[in-house]
From TrEMBL:
The lineage of its organism: Bacteria, Bacillati, Actinomycetota, Actinomycetes, Kitasatosporales. InterPro entries: SAM-dependent_MTases_sf (IPR029063), SAM_dep_MeTrfase_SAV2177_type (IPR006764). This is S-adenosyl methyltransferase. Residues 247-271 are annotated as: Disordered. It comes from the Bacteria. It holds the Pfam family Methyltransf_19. SUPFAM superfamilies: S-adenosyl-L-methionine-dependent methyltransferases.
Length: 271
């Protein structure tokens, strides 16, 4: 675990196998990926050409949920599985609504650490920090986040396109409940997640290809997704495909309605 305050510490990037953060960057048209990521990305596209649309739909879900949370008074954000910076980043959206919003980003991929400086340019009134940590070590995440966030006040915990990289064996549901147990009443959970519910054949093929390349994907059904929100009050409209969650808060993603987006998104409030 390491905080990056100024500059970039040296980090080791493994370019011998694809990494989720870099593949996602490639889908989004970014430049922070390697031939191995592009090659696997192209294999995913061959299975389902809508993968880049899905990535943009997911990103747009983050934009709208963050805006909704900030407009509804949330001033602290803990974003785990941040990804490579892609503008607008979460802190830019939150601080556009509320300049004093405080954001802690966290990811376990060294490539995100290498680009963390771009995540730290927040407003003078607010604060943004980056924490290098693995969500499967939640105590380290909480310990680091506590140094920046006031856990006596509501926090939005955002786990966007993260939990399908955390298996049931790693205790994904308990992990989320454990993180939520640290947060006070009035806090929120935001999750988006890939599913095989709509496209079982393509999803199975994609999961197998990724597994062979060392990336484990845990696709979850609607019920399994909804279980992450046990004990929370779901914000309207509840569990939805991501682009149907408060579409009025952003612009539609071109192509989002041309077929199935195999994912779910939801926001829940801790009572
Ligand atoms: C698909 S990207 C999502 C990025 C961003 N949240 C978004 O939705 O635009 C998934 C991110 O989760 C990170 N990740 C995967 N497993 C993780 C883990 N065990 N701990 C922390 N981050 C993880 C990856 O490195 C990657 O940056």
């Amino acid at each position: 675990m390491e905080f990056v305050m100024n500059g970039r510490p040296p980090v080791e990037i493994d370019t011998s196998r694809p990494h989720p953060a870099r593949m996602y960057d490639w889908y989004l048209g970014g430049k922070d990926n390697y031939p191995v990521d592009e090659a696997m990305g192209r294999q995913m596209l061959a299975l389902d050409p809508r993968v880049p649309v899905m990535a943009r739909v997911n990103r747009a879900f983050m934009h709208r949920t963050t805006r909704w949370l900030a407009e509804n008074g949330v001033r602290q954000f803990l974003d785990i599985g941040t990804g490579i910076p892609t503008e607008p980043n979460l802190h830019q959206i939150a601080q556009r609504v509320a300049a004093d919003a405080v954001v802690v980003y966290s990811d376990n991929d060294p490539i995100v650490l290498a680009h963390a400086a771009a995540l730290l340019r927040g407003t003078p009134e607010g604060r943004t920090e980056y924490l290098q940590a693995d969500v499967r070590s939640p105590d380290a995440v909480i310990e680091g986040a506590r140094k920046v966030l006031d856990f006596g006040r509501p926090v939005a915990l955002s786990l966007i396109a993260l939990l399908h990289f955390v298996s049931d064996e790693d205790g994904a549901h308990d992990l989320v409940q454990g993180l939520l147990s640290e947060l006070p009443s009035g806090s929120y959970l935001v999750v988006s997640h890939a599913t095989a519910d709509f496209t079982p054949e393509e999803s199975k093929a994609a999961t197998e290809k990724l597994k062979a390349a060392g990336v484990n994907l845990a696709l979850r059904s609607r019920d399994e997704f909804a279980r992450f929100f046990d004990g929370l009050d779901l914000v309207e409209p509840g569990v939805e495909v991501p682009h149907k969650w408060h579409p009025e808060l952003g612009e539609p993603v071109p192509g989002q309605d041309d077929g199935v987006i195999p994912g779910y998104g939801a926001v829940g409030r801790k009572p």
